[in-house]
């Protein structure tokens, strides 16, 4: 899907970065980081929903495209 904005991809990557920070945490530190991740994930989902409504596309389709675009943007273009 060519119309996935860079902003959606940035939001998705940010949420994934927050999720990755959960590794190795326990107790209060885990709970605090989990809340950061949930807020970031909620922000991504809301942005995806807004984009889907504005473009007339299915939100699940947009979400898949955002996930795919975020994964592609992690790839090294030199490889």
SS summary, helix count:
3
The parts where pLDDT drops under 50 for at least 5 residues are: none
Tell me the count of domains. 1
Compute the separation of the termini in Å.
23 Å
Counting helices, strands and paired strands, the structural category is: mainly alpha
What is the beta-strand fraction?
under 5%
What is the overall shape?
elongated
Oligomer: single chain
Largest sheet: none
- Total DSSP E strands: 0
Tell me, rounded to a whole number, the average pLDDT.
90
- Helix and strand run: HHH
Measured as a percent range, the helix fraction is: over 70%
Rg estimate, integer Å: 14 Å
Region (Disordered): 50-79
Keywords: Coiled coil
Coiled coil: 1-28
Biased composition (Basic and acidic residues): 57-79
Structural account:
With about 80 residues, the chain is mainly alpha-helical. The chain has one domain (about 5-75). The protein is about 75% helix and about 0% strand. It has helices spanning about 5-20, 25-55, 60-75. The longest helix is centred in the middle third of the chain and has 29 residues, at about 25-55. The chain is elongated and about 40 Å long. The protein starts with 5 loop residues before the first helix and ends in a 5-residue tail after the last helix. About 15% of the residues are buried. The model has no long low-confidence stretch (mean pLDDT about 90). Keywords: Coiled coil. InterPro entries: ESAT-6-like_sf.
């Amino acid at each position: 899907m060519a119309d996935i904005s860079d902003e959606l991809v940035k939001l998705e990557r940010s949420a994934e970065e927050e999720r990755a920070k959960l590794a190795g945490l326990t107790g209060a530190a885990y709970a605090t980081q989990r809340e950061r991740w949930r807020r970031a994930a909620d922000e991504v989902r809301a942005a995806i929903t807004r984009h889907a409504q504005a473009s007339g596309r299915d939100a699940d389709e947009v979400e898949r495209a955002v996930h795919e675009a975020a994964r592609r943007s992690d790839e090294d273009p030199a490889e």
